[in-house]
Specification:
Dihydrodipicolinate Reductase, domain 2; Gfo/Idh/MocA-like_OxRdtase_N; 25% strand; 402 residues; six-stranded parallel sheet; Rossmann fold; oxidoreductase; 2 domains; nucleotide binding; globular; binds alpha-L-sorbopyranose
């Protein structure tokens, strides 16, 4: 165990919430920003402290600690969850270790934040929910990190749906497109291995859009019909571990064991219809998440590439003046924006992690079940499993005959 370094925490005079984070690559860096900034921007009941960061490579984790401002390091997550100077365990590892770490942390009396998707299977997610429920009785909380709920514009969209501005919902249309797998020489990183990632674009991108669609609609999917595809089935083996989005290749190849793309339709309990597309092969689309909701009183549209904006069409206005209008979501009355910059000075991707930390700290202090809870994460996991089951049944895919 590395000794604590000089703390960089702001002296807020508030009781601390000492965070221990497992994993320090892309998501770990994003979460570090969230923990570092939340208490400096928002007035929080507890002051988050970047207490310990954990990774298997001692030199690399020390470098990450110094880059992101963590006071101490561990190389074994089991040691981290047992530490007395950690109140909350933040899990930023690939999906195959989520269940084991989360359950151990909850049993050790810690609050937990777990990256999405909650787990690699429904059975693991169920065990995590059971552990979270038992811990709840001891005053602990557990949250899953669906950060796109925390874009001010998506939170505003949720508020507008709840206010009835969309009316009876008929359609939800969501796409989440990336292109980092287009090159067949891109190496076989952990994100392309089923035993580590659980699934491919489905669990990585599909989990986000299922959660966002259900959150904005305010209801859950009742059923799905799906097709999935793995376009490149064999890839070069990587030489070194990476975040999974970048890597150098080596000698030899191995099989890709996850989906490259997943397309599915769904039906909400109310009868509203939904369509979903998740892919890593949409050339030119880097992190393009778009969602549109259509109801009998209006429509809402959001595009992550323009995340300070929300489009709204009020169908109750006379046709003469009606049409989509752009709401610039930078006013202090908008969700999360009371503490940021003056109107017009927008936010970005990293702020979603600051907002996530803010909401979780408040839930911990208030003893409230945070949203999205582990139960919400389990429900998304069930949708992902249903998508895979449907895609595996060719019966739902009717061939066109001459
Ligand atoms: C990679 O596809 C990835 O980093 C996801 O894992 C994240 O959850 C998403 O927010 C951005 O893309």
């Amino acid at each position: 165990m590395a000794q604590p370094q000089q703390s960089e925490e702001a002296d807020t005079g508030k009781p601390p919430l000492r965070v221990g984070m497992v994993g320090y690559a892309f998501m770990g860096a994003a979460h570090s920003q969230g923990w570092r900034t939340a208490g400096r921007v928002f007035d929080l009941p507890l002051s988050p402290e970047l207490a310990v960061v954990c990774g298997r490579d001692a030199d690399a984790v020390r470098a990450a600690a110094s880059r992101h401002g963590w006071a101490a390091t561990e190389t074994d997550w089991r040691a981290l969850v047992e530490r007395d100077d950690v109140d909350l365990v933040d899990i930023c590892t690939p999906g195959d270790s989520h269940a084991e770490i989360a359950i151990a942390a909850l049993e050790a009396g810690k609050h937990v934040l777990c990256e999405k998707p909650l787990a690699n299977s429904v059975a693991e997610a169920e065990a995590m929910v059971r552990a979270a429920e038992a811990a709840r009785a001891r005053g602990q909380v557990a949250m899953v990190g669906f950060n796109y709920r925390r874009v001010p514009a998506t939170a505003l969209a949720r508020r507008m749906v709840a206010e009835g501005r969309v009316g009876t919902l008929r359609h939800v249309r969501v796409t989440y497109l990336q292109d980092w797998l287009v090159d067949p020489e891109f190496p076989l990183t952990w994100r392309l291995r089923r035993e580590q990632a659980g699934s491919g674009s489905l669990g990585d991108l599909g989990a986000h859009i299922v959660d966002l669609a259900q959150y904005l609609a305010g209801e859950q999917l009742a059923g799905v019909s799906a097709i999935t595809e793995t376009f490149v089935r064999e890839r070069p083996l990587p030489t070194a571990p990476s975040s999974g989005l970048t890597a150098v290749s080596a000698a030899g190849t191995g099989p890709v064991t996850v989906d490259d793309a997943a397309l599915f339709t769904g039906r909400f309990a109310s009868g509203a219809l939904a369509s979903f597309e998740a892919t890593r092969y949409a050339t030119g689309r880097k992190n393009a998440l778009r969602i549109e909701l259509n109801g009998d009183r209006g429509s809402l549209a959001f595009d992550l590439e323009r995340l300070n904006e929300l489009s709204y069409h009020d169908a109750t206005e006379p046709g003469e003046h009606a049409g989509f209008r752009r709401i610039l979501v930078t006013e202090p009355e908008h969700p999360y924006l009371e503490a940021w910059w003056p109107p017009g000075h927008g936010l970005g991707y990293e702020h979603t992690f600051v907002h996530q930390a803010r909401d979780l700290v408040r839930a911990v202090a208030g003893g409230r079940v945070p949203e999205p809870s582990f139960a919400d994460g389990l429900q998304v996991q069930r949708v992902l499993a249903a998508v895979e089951e449907s895609a595996g049944k060719n019966s739902v895919y009717t061939p066109i005959t001459a």
